[in-house]
Amino acid sequence: MATSDFATILLSDLRSRESEMLRLLGKFVRAESPSFDKNAVDNFGRMVAAEWRARGARVTILRQKHRGDHLLINFPRTNSCVDGRILLLGHMDTVYDKGSLAKMPFRIAQRRAWGPGIFDMKGGLVLALAAVDALKRAGIRPRKEITCLWTTDEEIGSESSRKYIEREAKLSDTVLVLEPAGEPRGALKTSRKGVGEIELRVTGRAAHSGLKPEEGINAVHEMALQIARIAKFNQPRRSVGVHVNIASGGTRTNVIAAEAHALADVRVTRSSDIRPLERKFRALKPILPGARLEISGGIDRPPMERKMSAALYQHAQHLANDLGIHLEETASGGGSDGNLTAAIGVPTLDGLGAIGSGAHSLRENIIIRELAPRAALIAALIAAL
Predict the structure, then answer these.
(1) Which of 67, 72, 110, 138 has the greatest count of CB atoms below 10 A from its CB?
(2) Separation of alpha carbons 286 and 225, rounded Å
């Protein structure tokens, strides 16, 4: 069957299943799953696992002590499978605290569906299920083995899931990330900045600010001088972002501050910029006599460079043309788990999830009419790769 033929079949089928997708989406959104609430995330994980088991998949629960349990989904190999594997990657946790549904309930209005985590990224979880269902109904058997990894701590840095993400990516030859699409037109994300955090601590010496201020070493003043230096590390023309967004210090207004603390958000587009930027921070020295400076942290989520997505994006564009979809690409300043898979050399295409807007806000929503075309694109990619 020609690619254009099966793409059309998939889209037609999925348009007739829009109400089913919405029902499942409502069920998922109402199951709140904040990153730091293990019980809540695990409850939602059991719901997701049940959906995949109902489709004949083998579900392995990757149990965690302090975070939600991750889910590894495998489908039995068929005779049509050739060597190779496609990894569908995404997360089940959201940034919304338990009880957020009270102020932003799941609802349908203005041809959109609204609710906490619907765009980032419960919509993507529903689309993955819809794509697999559509392939089965159409009798289309993917040429490669399909595996899904749904994690529970992406929104807080992927600390417990990183080893599983990298392990499963190394076993795959393609990673499709179901993170939300680029706003506002649903662009795929072909590059992402590397992201990290650098912590600065200054130790000075306390003294009475009225009686003998000269005996003190003001840690807040030292930190202010360091922040002025660090501001020069920001290089927008090179897409190197450095911003000190948190700073604190001191105890009382009449005490020379003995300690100060700051956190810098750091982002780079190219892997080659990581070490030079980190070296600049490590080279910082105290300015005030007697002050001590400690620096820790760095870029822990490397950039997803476009070269790791270019071929997959071109493939997706051809399929989108067959579906009558105008598809664009975009670069994202934020990171995802796709950064991790691309950094170890596995071709990765990101932003294949729902089309909408308002991620991490009270206005988070997805566009209902875009559910079927997006699920059809995912299904077509799985079938064609």
Answers:
(1) 67
(2) 9
Question: How many C-beta atoms surround the C-beta of residue 19 within 10 A?
Answer: 9
Compute the distance between CA of residue 368 and CA of residue 358 in angstroms, rounded to an integer. 15
Give all strands of the β-sheet with 107-109 in edge-to-edge order: 107-109, 112-114, 365-367, 356-357
**Residue 104 CB contacts under 8 Å (≥ 6 apart), including other chains:** 96, 114, 115, 116, 362, 364
Q: Within 13 Å and on the Cβ side, how many CA atoms surround 357?
A: 5
In degrees, rounded to 5, the angle at the alpha carbon of residue 361 between the alpha carbons of residues 358 and 362 is 105
> Is 190:349 a contact under the CB 8 Å cutoff?
yes
Read off the pLDDT of residues 129-159 as tens digits, 9 standing for 90 and up: 999 999 999 999 898 999 999 999 999 999 9
Query: What's 104's DSSP letter?
Result: S
Q: pLDDT tier at 23 (50, 70, 90 boundaries)?
A: very high
d(CA 206, CA 221): 13
Terminal CA-to-CA distance of the chain, rounded, Å? 14
As a whole number of angstroms, the distance between CA 27 and CA 47 comes to: 9
Confidence of residue 6 (pLDDT cuts 50, 70, 90): confident
> What is the pTM assigned to this prediction?
0.92
Is residue 165 within 8 A of residue 341, CB to CB? The reply is yes
Total number of residues shown for the chain? 385
- pLDDT, tens digit, 9 for 90 and up, residues 234-275: 999 999 999 999 999 999 999 999 999 999 999 999 999 999
Could you report the per-residue pLDDT of 221-234, keeping only the tens digit for each? 999 999 999 999 99
3-state DSSP call for residue 109?
strand
**Under a CB-based contact definition with an 8 Å cutoff, are residues 353 and 124 in contact?**
yes
- Whose tokens are 């950039």? That residue is 303
